[in-house]
Amino acid sequence: MLKQPATYAEQMIKLRENGCIIIDDAFCEEVLSRINYYRFSAYLLTFKMADGTYAEGTSFEMVYRLYEFDRKLRRILFPVIEELEVYLRAQLSYFHSHKYGADGYMQAANYNKRHNHAQFIARINDSIKSNSKIPFVKHHVKKYGGKFPIWAIIELFTFGMLSYFYADMVTSDQKKLAHTVFNTSVSNAKSWLYCCTNLRNICAHSRRLYNSSFSVVPAKITHVDASSKHKLFASIIAVKELYPSIDKWNSEFMAAMSALLDEYSDVIQLDLIGFPADWEIVMAK
Hints:
The chain is mainly alpha-helical and 285 residues long. It has helices at 8-17, 25-35, 37-41, 60-100, 117-130, 135-144, 150-153, 159-167, 171-182, 186-204, 232-242, 246-263, 279-283.
Protein backbone atom coordinates (compact mmCIF):
# COMPACT_ATOMS: atom_id res chain seq x y z
CA MET A 1 0.00 0.00 0.00
CA LEU A 2 1.26 3.48 -0.87
CA LYS A 3 2.03 5.98 1.88
CA GLN A 4 -0.68 8.46 2.72
CA PRO A 5 -0.12 12.19 2.06
CA ALA A 6 1.16 14.24 4.99
CA THR A 7 0.37 17.84 5.89
CA TYR A 8 3.19 20.35 6.22
CA ALA A 9 2.87 20.09 10.02
CA GLU A 10 3.18 16.30 9.79
CA GLN A 11 6.18 16.62 7.48
CA MET A 12 7.90 18.86 10.04
CA ILE A 13 7.14 16.37 12.81
CA LYS A 14 8.75 13.62 10.73
CA LEU A 15 11.83 15.75 10.10
CA ARG A 16 12.23 16.47 13.80
CA GLU A 17 11.65 12.84 14.79
CA ASN A 18 14.55 11.88 12.50
CA GLY A 19 16.85 14.46 14.05
CA CYS A 20 16.54 17.43 11.70
CA ILE A 21 16.67 20.75 13.57
CA ILE A 22 14.01 23.25 12.51
CA ILE A 23 14.56 26.75 13.88
CA ASP A 24 11.75 28.56 12.08
CA ASP A 25 8.52 26.62 11.52
CA ALA A 26 7.02 29.29 9.27
CA PHE A 27 10.09 29.30 7.03
CA CYS A 28 10.13 25.51 6.91
CA GLU A 29 6.47 25.33 5.88
CA GLU A 30 6.96 28.03 3.24
CA VAL A 31 9.88 26.13 1.73
CA LEU A 32 8.00 22.81 1.72
CA SER A 33 5.05 24.48 0.02
CA ARG A 34 7.34 25.58 -2.81
CA ILE A 35 9.64 22.61 -3.21
CA ASN A 36 7.78 19.42 -2.24
CA TYR A 37 8.92 17.29 0.69
CA TYR A 38 9.93 14.35 -1.53
CA ARG A 39 12.32 16.50 -3.60
CA PHE A 40 13.71 18.27 -0.54
CA SER A 41 14.33 15.01 1.32
CA ALA A 42 16.82 13.95 -1.37
CA TYR A 43 19.19 16.61 -0.04
CA LEU A 44 18.93 15.08 3.41
CA LEU A 45 20.43 11.81 2.17
CA THR A 46 23.91 13.27 2.66
CA PHE A 47 23.23 13.41 6.41
CA LYS A 48 21.28 10.16 6.79
CA MET A 49 22.62 7.56 9.21
CA ALA A 50 22.29 3.78 8.97
CA ASP A 51 19.32 3.82 11.36
CA GLY A 52 17.41 6.34 9.24
CA THR A 53 18.07 9.34 11.48
CA TYR A 54 20.13 12.38 10.52
CA ALA A 55 23.61 13.21 11.74
CA GLU A 56 23.87 15.41 14.81
CA GLY A 57 23.62 19.11 13.97
CA THR A 58 21.68 18.63 10.73
CA SER A 59 19.37 21.61 10.32
CA PHE A 60 16.61 22.39 7.86
CA GLU A 61 18.29 25.69 7.03
CA MET A 62 21.57 23.90 6.22
CA VAL A 63 19.84 21.46 3.90
CA TYR A 64 17.95 24.31 2.24
CA ARG A 65 21.29 25.97 1.47
CA LEU A 66 22.38 22.75 -0.23
CA TYR A 67 19.19 22.83 -2.26
CA GLU A 68 19.89 26.44 -3.28
CA PHE A 69 23.47 25.57 -4.17
CA ASP A 70 22.22 22.79 -6.45
CA ARG A 71 19.64 25.07 -8.08
CA LYS A 72 22.23 27.76 -8.79
CA LEU A 73 24.70 25.16 -10.03
CA ARG A 74 22.20 23.99 -12.66
CA ARG A 75 21.60 27.63 -13.58
CA ILE A 76 25.33 28.05 -14.29
CA LEU A 77 25.68 24.80 -16.24
CA PHE A 78 22.59 24.92 -18.44
CA PRO A 79 23.52 28.04 -20.49
CA VAL A 80 26.96 26.58 -21.18
CA ILE A 81 25.43 23.35 -22.47
CA GLU A 82 22.92 25.40 -24.47
CA GLU A 83 25.76 27.28 -26.16
CA LEU A 84 27.45 24.00 -26.98
CA GLU A 85 24.18 22.73 -28.44
CA VAL A 86 23.87 25.77 -30.72
CA TYR A 87 27.50 25.32 -31.80
CA LEU A 88 26.91 21.66 -32.65
CA ARG A 89 23.89 22.54 -34.77
CA ALA A 90 25.97 25.01 -36.74
CA GLN A 91 28.95 22.70 -37.25
CA LEU A 92 27.03 19.52 -38.07
CA SER A 93 24.60 21.19 -40.48
CA TYR A 94 27.38 23.08 -42.29
CA PHE A 95 29.44 19.93 -42.77
CA HIS A 96 26.53 17.73 -43.80
CA SER A 97 24.93 20.21 -46.20
CA HIS A 98 28.18 20.91 -48.04
CA LYS A 99 28.94 17.22 -48.45
CA TYR A 100 25.47 15.78 -49.10
CA GLY A 101 23.29 18.76 -50.05
CA ALA A 102 20.40 20.52 -48.32
CA ASP A 103 18.31 17.37 -47.83
CA GLY A 104 21.05 14.74 -47.73
CA TYR A 105 20.10 13.95 -44.14
CA MET A 106 16.94 12.32 -45.53
CA GLN A 107 18.93 9.65 -47.37
CA ALA A 108 19.64 6.43 -45.48
CA ALA A 109 22.77 5.83 -47.60
CA ASN A 110 24.49 8.76 -45.86
CA TYR A 111 24.59 6.97 -42.50
CA ASN A 112 26.35 3.94 -41.09
CA LYS A 113 24.89 0.44 -40.80
CA ARG A 114 23.76 0.93 -37.18
CA HIS A 115 21.48 3.78 -38.22
CA ASN A 116 17.73 3.17 -37.93
CA HIS A 117 16.54 5.52 -40.64
CA ALA A 118 12.82 4.90 -40.21
CA GLN A 119 13.08 5.74 -36.52
CA PHE A 120 15.17 8.83 -37.27
CA ILE A 121 12.66 10.17 -39.81
CA ALA A 122 9.80 9.42 -37.41
CA ARG A 123 11.52 11.52 -34.72
CA ILE A 124 11.97 14.36 -37.19
CA ASN A 125 8.31 14.20 -38.20
CA ASP A 126 7.26 14.21 -34.55
CA SER A 127 9.42 17.28 -33.96
CA ILE A 128 7.85 19.07 -36.92
CA LYS A 129 4.38 18.22 -35.67
CA SER A 130 5.02 19.32 -32.09
CA ASN A 131 6.57 22.59 -33.29
CA SER A 132 4.04 23.30 -36.03
CA LYS A 133 3.26 26.82 -34.75
CA ILE A 134 6.85 28.06 -34.93
CA PRO A 135 7.14 30.55 -37.84
CA PHE A 136 9.98 28.84 -39.72
CA VAL A 137 8.22 25.47 -39.44
CA LYS A 138 4.95 26.94 -40.76
CA HIS A 139 6.92 28.58 -43.59
CA HIS A 140 8.53 25.34 -44.73
CA VAL A 141 5.32 23.38 -44.47
CA LYS A 142 3.42 25.97 -46.51
CA LYS A 143 6.05 26.90 -49.11
CA TYR A 144 8.05 23.68 -49.45
CA GLY A 145 5.44 21.03 -48.65
CA GLY A 146 7.03 20.11 -45.36
CA LYS A 147 10.56 19.71 -46.75
CA PHE A 148 13.36 21.23 -44.67
CA PRO A 149 17.04 21.80 -45.45
CA ILE A 150 19.42 20.43 -42.84
CA TRP A 151 20.28 23.92 -41.54
CA ALA A 152 16.59 24.50 -40.73
CA ILE A 153 15.49 21.10 -39.44
CA ILE A 154 18.52 20.83 -37.16
CA GLU A 155 17.08 23.72 -35.13
CA LEU A 156 14.45 21.23 -33.94
CA PHE A 157 17.00 18.61 -32.91
CA THR A 158 17.43 18.04 -29.20
CA PHE A 159 20.92 17.57 -27.80
CA GLY A 160 20.18 13.85 -27.82
CA MET A 161 19.29 13.95 -31.52
CA LEU A 162 22.50 15.85 -32.29
CA SER A 163 24.49 13.19 -30.46
CA TYR A 164 22.60 10.47 -32.32
CA PHE A 165 23.11 12.24 -35.65
CA TYR A 166 26.87 12.31 -35.16
CA ALA A 167 27.07 8.74 -33.85
CA ASP A 168 25.20 7.45 -36.93
CA MET A 169 27.33 9.21 -39.54
CA VAL A 170 29.58 7.12 -41.74
CA THR A 171 33.02 6.54 -40.24
CA SER A 172 34.85 8.94 -42.55
CA ASP A 173 32.49 11.77 -41.60
CA GLN A 174 32.86 10.99 -37.91
CA LYS A 175 36.64 11.09 -38.22
CA LYS A 176 36.61 14.36 -40.14
CA LEU A 177 34.43 16.10 -37.55
CA ALA A 178 36.26 14.54 -34.61
CA HIS A 179 39.48 16.03 -35.97
CA THR A 180 38.28 19.44 -37.20
CA VAL A 181 35.50 20.26 -34.73
CA PHE A 182 36.05 18.23 -31.55
CA ASN A 183 39.85 17.88 -31.69
CA THR A 184 39.72 14.33 -30.37
CA SER A 185 39.01 10.75 -31.44
CA VAL A 186 35.64 9.51 -32.69
CA SER A 187 35.12 7.33 -29.62
CA ASN A 188 35.81 10.26 -27.29
CA ALA A 189 33.53 12.60 -29.23
CA LYS A 190 30.63 10.12 -29.12
CA SER A 191 31.15 9.45 -25.42
CA TRP A 192 31.40 13.12 -24.48
CA LEU A 193 28.33 14.06 -26.53
CA TYR A 194 26.33 11.33 -24.82
CA CYS A 195 27.59 12.52 -21.44
CA CYS A 196 26.62 16.13 -22.25
CA THR A 197 23.18 14.96 -23.31
CA ASN A 198 22.71 13.27 -19.95
CA LEU A 199 23.91 16.33 -18.01
CA ARG A 200 21.71 18.62 -20.09
CA ASN A 201 18.64 16.53 -19.29
CA ILE A 202 19.46 16.46 -15.57
CA CYS A 203 19.70 20.26 -15.53
CA ALA A 204 16.61 20.77 -17.70
CA HIS A 205 14.47 18.60 -15.43
CA SER A 206 15.86 20.10 -12.21
CA ARG A 207 17.27 16.83 -10.96
CA ARG A 208 19.85 16.75 -8.20
CA LEU A 209 23.54 17.20 -9.01
CA TYR A 210 24.95 17.34 -5.49
CA ASN A 211 26.02 13.98 -4.08
CA SER A 212 24.62 12.14 -7.11
CA SER A 213 26.09 9.18 -8.93
CA PHE A 214 26.04 9.57 -12.72
CA SER A 215 25.35 6.43 -14.75
CA VAL A 216 26.83 7.99 -17.89
CA VAL A 217 30.61 8.23 -17.58
CA PRO A 218 32.76 10.12 -20.14
CA ALA A 219 35.57 8.17 -21.80
CA LYS A 220 39.24 9.06 -21.38
CA ILE A 221 38.81 12.19 -19.29
CA THR A 222 42.21 13.16 -17.91
CA HIS A 223 42.84 14.30 -14.33
CA VAL A 224 39.68 12.58 -13.05
CA ASP A 225 40.35 9.72 -10.63
CA ALA A 226 38.26 6.57 -10.29
CA SER A 227 36.32 7.88 -7.30
CA SER A 228 35.14 10.92 -9.27
CA LYS A 229 34.26 9.44 -12.66
CA HIS A 230 30.61 8.94 -11.65
CA LYS A 231 30.36 12.42 -10.15
CA LEU A 232 29.44 15.78 -11.62
CA PHE A 233 33.03 16.91 -12.13
CA ALA A 234 33.72 14.30 -14.84
CA SER A 235 30.63 15.40 -16.78
CA ILE A 236 31.66 19.05 -16.59
CA ILE A 237 35.08 18.13 -17.97
CA ALA A 238 33.32 16.45 -20.93
CA VAL A 239 31.45 19.71 -21.57
CA LYS A 240 34.74 21.62 -21.34
CA GLU A 241 36.40 19.37 -23.92
CA LEU A 242 33.66 20.14 -26.47
CA TYR A 243 32.92 23.77 -25.59
CA PRO A 244 34.06 26.06 -28.44
CA SER A 245 35.22 29.23 -26.66
CA ILE A 246 38.27 29.18 -24.40
CA ASP A 247 37.82 32.83 -23.42
CA LYS A 248 34.15 32.49 -22.46
CA TRP A 249 34.78 29.28 -20.56
CA ASN A 250 37.55 30.79 -18.47
CA SER A 251 36.17 34.30 -17.99
CA GLU A 252 32.46 33.53 -17.60
CA PHE A 253 31.87 29.93 -16.58
CA MET A 254 34.93 29.49 -14.38
CA ALA A 255 34.32 32.81 -12.64
CA ALA A 256 30.69 31.90 -11.93
CA MET A 257 31.63 28.44 -10.66
CA SER A 258 34.33 29.79 -8.36
CA ALA A 259 31.96 32.40 -6.91
CA LEU A 260 29.25 29.79 -6.29
CA LEU A 261 31.58 27.38 -4.53
CA ASP A 262 32.86 30.20 -2.34
CA GLU A 263 29.32 31.31 -1.47
CA TYR A 264 28.31 27.85 -0.26
CA SER A 265 31.65 26.65 1.11
CA ASP A 266 30.08 26.37 4.58
CA VAL A 267 27.70 23.57 3.55
CA ILE A 268 29.12 21.77 0.52
CA GLN A 269 31.75 19.03 0.32
CA LEU A 270 33.71 19.19 -2.93
CA ASP A 271 34.30 15.43 -3.01
CA LEU A 272 30.52 14.85 -3.18
CA ILE A 273 30.51 16.46 -6.63
CA GLY A 274 33.87 14.93 -7.55
CA PHE A 275 35.83 18.19 -7.44
CA PRO A 276 39.51 17.73 -6.55
CA ALA A 277 41.38 20.30 -4.49
CA ASP A 278 43.00 21.68 -7.68
CA TRP A 279 39.71 21.75 -9.61
CA GLU A 280 40.35 25.26 -10.98
CA ILE A 281 43.57 24.13 -12.65
CA VAL A 282 42.01 20.96 -14.09
CA MET A 283 38.80 22.63 -15.24
CA ALA A 284 40.36 25.66 -16.95
CA LYS A 285 40.71 25.44 -20.74
